[in-house]
TrEMBL record:
Its EC number is 2.7.1.35. It comes from Clostridium sartagoforme. InterPro entries: PM/HMP-P_kinase-1, PyrdxlKinase, Ribokinase-like. This is pyridoxal kinase. It is an enzyme of class 2 (transferase). Residues 26-256 form the Pyridoxamine kinase/Phosphomethylpyrimidine kinase domain.
Length: 279
């Protein structure tokens, strides 16, 4: 019997749009991992919708973290995603620095499609670099990777060499493993993983159906963490996360929903259980 691992999941709760905690909780649970939500904000819908409410809970986050510390609660992994203010990034830095022997995965949620999210300011970007520097694994999309490195975003023409250069620049900030998602070339989309210690690049290809759904980055990172927590290797995790998302996008696209609604992963959670069971 395996013990159930605990992941402190720092992310927002968005009522509609299948992203952040509403992706991480079901996905980590399906992968047999306890998702312990550490909420950053409560939104009626994510920020891609024309209108949304936004309750920032920065002050509560300090008390929340301190309460876990008093209780002596340990986590196998800290997973940070959408952060709503500079102060929140500082709180996450403290939370990580107060703990040892925890895998730190930072998804530096800042933007997509070459554009920063509404709530993300320039000063938050430099703080985010600091958070990236203390992570073991980071999972930016190409937009975020460009923001972190000051490289120009080129949606359809980023060469292998350029992606690898960006991966190395990010790993020089600190992380041992850098995963860059969403590199589009013709009708394909690629995810790259760079392992600093091995100096190796692993690249996974998937078909691109020219639709960009919200929350796929959160689904991706949640799958990676869930599989790593079950002792699968990173390349296995990336390959299966990529294939899973492709399959769910294909299914979702048949319904012609608003892409802000995210992908219909609920119908495929059973597949994650099978992917996880394969040893
Ligand atoms: O999936 C990224 C994300 C997470 N959280 C919120 C967002 C977005 C992207 O738009 O708005 C609140």
């Amino acid at each position: 019997m395996k013990e159930v691992k605990k992941v402190a999941t720092i992310n927002d709760l968005s009522g509609v749009g299948r992203c952040s905690l509403t992706a991480a909780i079901p996905i980590l649970s399906a992968l047999g991992v306890q998702c312990c939500p550490y909420p950053t904000a409560v939104l009626s819908c994510h920020t891609g919708f024309d209108q949304y409410t936004f309750l920032d809970i920065t002050d509560e986050m300090v008390k929340y973290k301190d309460s876990w510390k008093t209780l002596g609660i340990d986590f196998d992994c800290i997973y940070s995603g959408f952060l709503g203010s500079e102060k929140q990034i500082d709180i996450v830095l403290d939370f990580v620095n107060e703990r040892d022997n925890t895998l730190v995965v930072v998804d530096p949620v800042m933007g997509d499609n070459g554009v920063k999210y509404d709530t993300f300011t320039n000063s938050m970007c430099s703080k985010m670099k600091h958070l990236v520097s203390i992570a073991n694994i980071v999972t930016p999309n190409l937009t975020e990777a460009c923001i972190l490195t000051g490289e120009e975003y080129d949606k359809y023409n980023t060469s292998d060499e350029k992606v690898i250069e960006i991966c190395k620049k990010i790993s020089n900030l600190g992380p041992e493993k850098v995963i860059i998602t969403g590199i589009i070339k013709e009708n394909n989309i690629y995810n790259y993983a760079y392992d600093k210690e091995k100096n190796e690049v692993f690249k996974v290809k998937s078909k691109f159906n020219h639709e960009s759904y919200s929350g796929t980055g959160d689904v991706f990172t949640s799958i990676i963490i869930g599989l790593l927590m079950n002792n699968h290797d990173l390349n296995y995790a990336i390959k299966h996360a990529t294939d899973f998302i492709y399959k769910v996008i294909e299914f979702t696209s048949k319904f012609k929903t608003d892409t802000n609604e995210g992908i219909m992963f609920e119908a495929f959670l059973k597949e994650l259980i099978l992917i996880n069971e394969y040893k």
